[in-house]
Amino acid sequence: MTPSVANSALPNIGALDIDFDHNGLFNTLVADMAELLETIAGAEDACAYVSSIAARLGTDIEKQYKTALGLQHLNRNQLIEVLVDLKNRAGGAFFVIEQDEDRVVFGNCTCPLGRAAANHPSLCMLTSNIFGRLAANSTGYAAVDLEETIAKGAAGCRVVLHLKRTELGPDTREYFRDDASATPA
Fold this sequence. Notes:
CATH topology: Muramoyl-pentapeptide Carboxypeptidase, domain 2
Strand content: 15-25%
CATH architecture: 2-Layer Sandwich
Number of domains: 1
Structural class: alpha+beta
Mean pLDDT: 89
Oligomer: single chain
Low-confidence stretches: none
Shape: globular
CATH class: Alpha Beta
Order of helices and strands: HHHHEEHEEE
Strand order of the largest sheet: 1-2-4-3-5
Helix content: 40-55%
Distance between the termini: 67 Å
Largest sheet: 5 strands, antiparallel
Number of helices: 5
């Protein structure tokens, strides 16, 4: 039997209902890496590793926005717009719930990491670090509370960005200005 005759009975491989594509690869890779890291290193160290990656990513994102805007410094309103925009560009659905002089409360109903974040709260350090570092570089100081997260099973996220020193909760993370960010690019 020739290969073309044997394969003619098979369905079109490209038309098969297989739950795998670019997003599936990304979700599986990120979820499995987070699972492995949290299992081997523990939740606290996993958060530290993800925080280190987020710090590098945040530095790059900050430079890109400042360059695109032609600015050396983001004011408060620009900072808030940038934070919402970058998370939404990444696939989130972030929005401002409320704000005052001391803090900004963000909501989110779609995690940028998709189903990969489920049960992997260490991945939330991406949001904490990027928000915290960009805000600290704009205002000199920031603290981030991840009050509710999709990764911990909530229907959405509630992220509180403190722009002035506050009493720290057990999971509050503080960020301070990176002196390198104050120099012209």
